[in-house]
């Protein structure tokens, strides 16, 4: 089925909006169209076995037994409908449409009915009936052919996504929060699964796949398809969790139709209500929303972080409150299967991030500590940079992070950075912020997905071969290369001392001075020294004390007072006296500086080489040294482009001036 057919069927479903106009706000159209599309799809899937199910219901009528097993077997699916009603029959009886539709929906098995309940379907039925629109809406959907032989399961996903995109546009929501472009999913699944291709072809292989932010289930379906393409006899069990009720309902119904267990798709927030607690999976993948705050679950997340520590999901650290991306990654890492003594087991993870998780957060911040935890455990296999303008809801650059706890020996201790930012073709028509797409080799387009997949598989070889044409697109680093020591470079506080109008004003405002009973007289006594200056603190304090005593006042004692006077009359001077505390130079906070020194390098050697030639009196305060980790992806792939020659720029400007003059001449003629 081509994209024009998807659009045609989506247009048919969305044409119901013409009936709703006036009785419904535009932003509420989807609340009717989406559940009716799901209902029609369920009906079309069950139609071939509908009579068999009705016969089974009649056969067990009046018997006090659980008929669920027999009805599922009769329907051929994990769900069924016990009624002999259809949407077409209901539409043919307008007077009883609401009553019959509720009977029809109530006859579905619990797992199917729960999907419609998430849409508050009964409420919409009552509203449509009250507006005398129900039978018309039902009639419109009876003409929508969604039978599996016309619309296969894979293609049905495109139709749901198109409807959600339109719903999001009408509601001023973000479509990208609900689903990911299919070509992006295909590449992501390739990179996730490709290294296991041989293992997946083993007869009878069983694999579990989990997405903690599954949206409409596109990633789960793609992973299922990919594994079964490698081995049609493989058993793939998919699991997911979703917070948005409409997306959850579509994902659940889609997987239910495909024969997956609908109970594996949980509703709720993965952070505060883990629907798959204590479960481990072979493959875990996700495209969590970018830059979304986690304030709503702050209490639960912080409690788990503090009370469970490393025994919980968030022991490594907590990111800033306005971006929960790295919480998702920690949650996914907690779902990895352990590796056994023979090297078996283990898991692979793929997640989509924007650039923020690469470098946000200073040394020993929550983000930096999470990166450190991942790298020191040798879980990060690769990061792949994607083109910008690839997603529906953002035009910014995005990245795949690929992680595993079972790296092969060649990848041990290493991280691959792969630059695929130039692998794209321009779309004929933009969809939201999406203006670019990855080519798949069809319809005359380049095979970007295949090229990137192959380059990923050969990354170590390409990085080690300077003659390879794609050598500049791949770089390999040791885990430690992303670590650094954040050192604090101090310089001594140097002061001269003087009494000026400015220092007198500072003295009068100092709290220890202002609290004196005769503070004004104290300042007046010091004023007698106006214009005086001293090179040392001891000389200055002797003179100040003599002036105060001469005025009949007492010189206060105590360190706070002495410090306040020094700060008031002391003036920073590169040639001034070095101030000391307990015999050691006192650092000047205004001159304090910070340097990032690569992990493993001797910081004192770094100081001698990089700092002391410029400021010979500097030193490192080792008590303030912190360890940080960041991944400056773009810096590693930066290529210097020299500016154009001035003669070329001048020639271009003169050409443009001549062109403008010619145009002006035409206007004035």
TrEMBL record:
Its EC number is 2.1.1.72. Residues 9-141 form the N6 adenine-specific DNA methyltransferase N-terminal domain. This is site-specific DNA-methyltransferase (adenine-specific). One of its GO terms (biological process) is methylation. Keywords: Methyltransferase, Restriction system, S-adenosyl-L-methionine, Transferase. SUPFAM superfamilies: S-adenosyl-L-methionine-dependent methyltransferases. It comes from Streptomyces coeruleorubidus. InterPro entries: D12N6_MeTrfase_N, DNA_Adenine_Mtase, DNA_methylase_A-5, DNA_methylase_N6_adenine_CS, SAM-dependent_MTases_sf, T1MK-like_N_sf. CDD domains: AdoMet_MTases. Pfam families: HsdM_N, N6_Mtase. Belongs to the N(4)/N(6)-methyltransferase family. GO terms for molecular function: methyltransferase activity. It catalyses: a 2'-deoxyadenosine in DNA + S-adenosyl-L-methionine = an N(6)-methyl-2'-deoxyadenosine in DNA + S-adenosyl-L-homocysteine + H(+). It is an enzyme of class 2 (transferase). Residues 154-429 form the DNA methylase adenine-specific domain.
